[in-house]
Amino acid sequence: MKKVSVLGATGSIGRQTIKVLKGLSGYKIISLSAHSNYKLLIDYVREFKPKTVCVTNEKAYEKAKSKIKDAKVLPPWQLFRLAEDKNTDIIIAGSSGSSALPVILAALKNGKTVAVANKEPIVMAGDILKKAAEKHGGKIIPVDSEHSAIFHCLATSKTKPEKIYITSSGGAILKRGARKITPAFILKHPIWKMGKKITVDSSTGVNKGFEVIEAHHLFGIDFSKIGVILHPEAIVHGIVEYADGSSVAYLSRPDMKIPIKYALTYPQKLPLKNFLDYKNLNLTFKKFPEEKYACFCLAVKCGKKGGVLPSSFCGANETTVKFFLKGKIPFSKIPKIIEKTVSKTPSVKYTIENCLKIEKWAMDFAGRIS
Q1: 108 and 188 belong to one structural domain
Q2: Total number of domains constituting the chain
Q3: 273-319 pLDDT, tens digit each
Q4: Which residues on adjacent β-strands are paired with residue 4?
């Protein structure tokens, strides 16, 4: 019996993880975390009977604590305790932003397997997390569709790749035309059904920039050997190219349940019955139009410089996306605010604590200049 902890259980990745786990035998949910959706968390407690839950929003925590009697309810500041539970085998890190970063680090230091779905932890502290995994016997399995794809492809050969390619569907911005860029327009992603923030990130180029940084950390590949290709159908999720001119590509339907299930059952591939129809499959590949995505190059530039700059970028992006969705700033102002924030980032030592402090500093700074 494999025992699973799901962080961000009520979010997009969390809900899909729950659906996958419902269809898996030999797996048991022993802990869950949620941010503010305590009502759905209560439903999960009734259905799965986890021993422990954590609510990371203080108001929601108070409400959950008064209503949940069949599980121990932890306050926001004790989220890390889910990672220290000796009974946990796999942690699905699906909570938004950097909230899971200390938990992921604690889990890796306890030699656990962490399936990382959200981007910020690896973007902000990839080097630190990788070193912790190597030192303590922990394992990081990527859940993001592109990195799961590259993870698969790299496993087919022991030969060092010449280059890896991450694909991009382009998001809503690709077919903008003369349309006004409103939150409603941006949130209508043509392929994926995701949370609001990551959907906006797909149109600013932040999401793809983060994926390049993640690939660098996860697979130990130099930035110069990581490319992005425009692929509107979102069927090919990653390609690994070798020195002899051959390439290995990973194809699947754009369904997050596929990489989630693989992360849970790795290295097995258990049935999901979501097959491609190759008889009617048309695939197109084009140069990724960086000029359409104002934040892509800036994100990659921060990733190359490293240190706490990616954390500053993450913080500024968090604030600007929030302001854009609330109608406080136009879409065009997002990259300008992020760039100015990053340029003012204080120089501090690269540690988990400072990554989180700089992210918070950047959130506040971006808010003041918005």
Answers
A1: no
A2: 3
A3: 778 999 999 999 999 999 889 899 999 999 999 999 999 999 999 99
A4: 29, 90
Instruction: For the beta carbon of residue 349, count every other beta carbon within 10 angstroms.
Output: 8
Residue 59: domain span: 2-142
158, 114: one domain: no
> Which two structure tokens, joined as six digits, stand for 208?
């793809």
Instruction: Verify that 358 and 258 share a domain, yes or no.
Output: no
The Cα 116–Cα 120 span in angstroms is 10
Pick from 108, 102, 101: nearest CA to 122: 101
Per-residue pLDDT of 36-61, as tens digits, reads 999 999 999 999 999 999 999 999 99
